[in-house]
Write a structure and sequence with these properties.
Order of helices and strands: HHHEHEHHHEEEEEEHEHEEHEH
Number of domains: 4
Radius of gyration: 28 Å
Structural class: alpha+beta
Low-confidence stretches: 1-6
Helix content: 25-40%
Number of strands: 12
Shape: elongated
Distance between the termini: 77 Å
Number of helices: 11
Strand content: 15-25%
Length: 338
């Protein structure tokens, strides 16, 4: 049975510089400054290699000459720590929370990503984030094809290839089932993340317009050799796809005609508008009864759905056509509850 001191690479001095860096990355920060003796002890504990203080010092100097930002005894009067890690513990925490909130990843896939992200953190990180071991308890998809879907769709986007796939929905058995008995054929343009979901933005022939497909509902992706329709060749699209602008105006991931709408609401609810439409809005002063009017820009379909979602606090004033559609939607809802 091998002990740590009997590890195959324990005697290789060339690898010592890597061990020094890993110990600094995992065990040091401004609150945990390491001496050369402590670094040597960690190297022996983790990798089974014995090293003296002079060797540690030489390798720290080599790392700093290579551009690694290390605070030294001369800087802080205590010892050594890595000043500029690839990710701070706080940044890794944010990445992990993003994974946990991503419903398009399976529970197993989320845990796999979290375990790998934790390896980039210091040893002091996990004690402060016990919740990250509970990835399976968060809401996640059970579609095991998500990562493969992303790889294939990325390839198709890069090569300007059409794709075909099965687009699914959940049945009463809580499992995915095909929506139709045929494959969807789509020109893929971009993959984007919005509201905790991953979407494929593409052109579906049956609609001949931009459509958003949830990637966690896609199975059976295959690249095709049939002609690819560029985004700028679609009706009402005359330039290349600006994904930042597309996400900004496609409220709730609904495409449609870009419009400016006027909303009426109480001043204290302006945060709900900013959350969805950003700060590029026009706010008009309050009228006699204390309400304000706000002009927002987005797609007609997206604003329509948003107005129904926030119907208790907002009223669509214009354009007239959108207002009438929302009124008809509300009338239909009232009829259902009679």
């Amino acid at each position: 049975m091998n002990t740590q001191s009997e590890k195959p690479n324990a005697g290789s001095k060339k690898i010592l510089i890597y061990y020094v860096y890993e110990v600094l990355r995992r065990y040091s920060n401004p609150e945990h400054v390491l001496t050369q003796r402590e670094i040597s002890k960690y190297i022996h504990k983790e990798y089974g290699m014995r090293s003296d203080r002079k060797a540690i010092g030489r390798n720290i100097m080599a790392l700093t000459e290579a551009g690694i930002d290390i605070s030294t005894y001369e800087d802080n009067g205590e010892g050594y720590y890595l000043k500029d890690p690839l990710f701070t513990d706080a940044e890794i925490r944010m990445l992990i929370d993003t994974v946990l909130a991503s419903r398009y990843i399976t529970g197993r896939g989320a845990q796999y990503l979290i375990d790998n992200l934790k390896k980039l953190a210091t040893v002091y990180f996990e004690n402060r984030t016990r919740h990250i071991t509970q990835a399976a308890r968060w809401v996640h998809t059970d579609n095991q094809n998500v990562f493969l879907n992303i790889e294939l769709l990325d390839e198709a986007i890069e090569k300007h290839k059409r794709v075909q796939f099965v687009y699914n929905c959940y049945g009463l058995d809580m499992k995915l089932h095909p929506r139709h008995d045929y494959f969807y054929e789509v020109d893929p343009y971009q993959i984007i993340s919005s509201n905790g979901r991953y979407y494929l933005v593409g052109n579906y022939d049956k609609h001949d317009c931009v459509t958003n497909f949830r990637i966690d509902l896609i199975t059976g992706v295959a690249l095709l050799d049939s002609p690819y329709t560029p985004f700028e060749a679609l009706p009402n699209k005359n330039k290349t796809l600006d994904i930042a602008e597309y996400v900004k105006y496609s409220v709730n991931m609904y495409d449609g005609n870009k419009i400016t709408a006027t909303l009426r609401l109480k001043p204290e609810r302006i945060g709900d508008v900013i959350d969805w439409f950003g700060k590029e809005i026009a706010i008009m002063p309050a009228d006699g009864d204390g309400y304000i009017q706000v002009k927002v820009t987005g797609t007609d379909n997206g604003i329509r759905v948003w107005a129904l979602q926030y119907g208790r606090i907002v009223e669509i004033m214009s354009p007239k056509g959108l207002r009438e559609k929302v009124k008809a939607d509300l009338a239909g809802m009232i009829e259902k509850y009679r």
